[in-house]
Design brief:
Strand order of the largest sheet: 1-2
Shape: globular
Number of helices: 4
Order of helices and strands: HHHEEH
Number of domains: 1
Structural class: mainly alpha
Radius of gyration: 17 Å
Distance between the termini: 26 Å
Length: 133
């Protein structure tokens, strides 16, 4: 827990499926985010509708940023991996935003004024309209 609070992430190894849900529940309530599912299976499939289902590398990004209530903590539990590579890059988004605001104040906040396509609710919204608190 100290690593999550201090760094914003931690790595756990050798956790079984049976240990996973009780571990997560001990941290706090589990709230289903997508399709009322607590656990989602992510694997490469032909013709995916987003990068998570593809075989391509994922660049730094924020999951579920279009949602009004975003996850506070997100757990990724790799059960099987036959791929090579798989390195992860973590970015401190708060630091990026702070530095961008400091170095480019004239551009800071422009993304909040743009329409954001949202495939999950079928319409474009402005970030300050409904998808951000």
């Amino acid at each position: 827990m100290n690593q999550i609070l201090e760094l914003g992430f931690t790595l756990l190894k050798n956790m079984s499926v049976e240990q996973f849900e009780p571990f997560v529940s001990a941290i706090g309530p589990i709230i289903p985010i997508i399709e009322s599912e607590l656990i989602l299976t992510v694997k490469a499939i032909p013709n995916p509708d987003d990068l998570a289902g593809s075989c391509y590398a994922l660049t730094p990004h924020t999951d579920l940023s279009y949602m009004h209530t975003q996850p506070v903590v997100q757990f990724l539990h790799c059960l099987e991996n036959e791929a090579t590579g798989g390195e992860s890059i973590l970015v401190d988004g708060f630091r990026v935003a702070r530095d961008f605001q400091k170095n480019h104040p004239e551009y800071f906040g422009k993304n909040w004024e743009r329409d954001i396509p949202d495939k999950h609710n079928g319409r474009a919204t402005k970030c300050n309209e409904s998808v951000c608190p």
